[in-house]
Amino acid sequence: MTDPVTLRTVLATSPLSTPLKRHVITSPRVRLDFAEVSPVHEAFAPMVRKQAYDLCELAIVTCLQAIAYDRPIVMLPVVVASRFQRGCLISHRARVPAVADLAGKRIGVRAYTQTTGMWVRAHLAEDYGLSTESVHWVTRDPAHVEQYHDPRFVEHMASPKSLPDMLRDGDIDAAILGNDLPKGDEFAPVIPAAATKDLEWWRQHRFMPINHMMVASRDVSRRDPGAVKEAYRLLAHAHGLSAVPEDEPSPVVFGFAALREPVLWIIDACMEQGLLPRRLGLDEVFGPAEDLLGGLPD
User: Fold this and answer.
1) What residue numbers bound the domain in which 257 lies?
2) Average pLDDT for the chain
3) Most exposed residue of 116, 163, 255, 267, measured as fewest CB within 10 angstroms of its CB?
4) CA-wise closest residue to 148 among 65, 41, 45
């Protein structure tokens, strides 16, 4: 019997990854060697620039940019993290701006390309007609994909302050944060009834806003496509242990059919915000994975 193929893997701990990390689900064909990277976005640049891992969680905006700039990744039809986003736009409770007054204001976000920022900007445009270019975006980090350069209306901050500190000091009017949203009452959401609007959006579109996908390196996809295919099967098995009912929002999604409309929606939003150099076709986005995973159910 041959030894299993080892795939160096980055996947944040979640109900999806826990059965795999605890070896509840295993395979004689593949061993997933998990590298713990926290926060997980610190794995994104090494993945798209150097293929630092065989399998890696990756933000969907970074995925699409990597495809557009021909970086060596293959986006698998696996959503590993989604969340509702409107509540991620916050301000200091003492001076919360009205959404109608955000044009011309300074809004901080870790990176202009951060997927949470893309979603918040898309919601502001969809709900309030607020164009991306009408806001002054203040950022700290560059794009994970080196070839991308931020638009002219984006400023890179020189201050070492955190976004919450910049809100406290009045350096910015609002900020977009994700998993690092501060606790307590000092800060307040900018979008009124954010949770209600998010649920209405889900009822209309039938998918949660996608944050992170699973990708494979191009090298391992060419060197051992069977191992990647087996890893996909393991992920699908793990998902089956914690899948939510179809009539509830799910943060994890599998399959090409379920992802085509969401990805088209995201491509449109990325084009409006200047996040892509050109419009991608679904054949570019899904074609390599369809070839890789051929024969598996959609």
Assistant:
1) 5-83+208-292
2) 95
3) 255
4) 65
Distance CA 242, CA 33 (A): 22
List the CATH number of the domain containing 111.
3.40.190.10
- Choose one of 140, 173, 204: the last residue of a domain: 204
Residue 115 has pLDDT above 70, yes or no: yes
- In this structure, is residue 297 part of a structural domain? no
Cα atoms in the 13 Å half-sphere on the side-chain side of 58: 35
Measured CA to CA, the distance from residue 60 to residue 280 in angstroms comes to 13
Q: Which of 297, 106, 126, 103 is nearest to 209 (CA)?
A: 126
Domain co-membership, 154 together with 219: no
Residue pLDDT, tens place only, 213-264: 999 999 999 999 999 999 999 999 999 988 788 888 999 999 999 999 999 9
Distance (Å) of CA 120 to CA 64, 189, 216: 18, 12, 28
pLDDT bucket at 206, cuts 50 / 70 / 90: very high
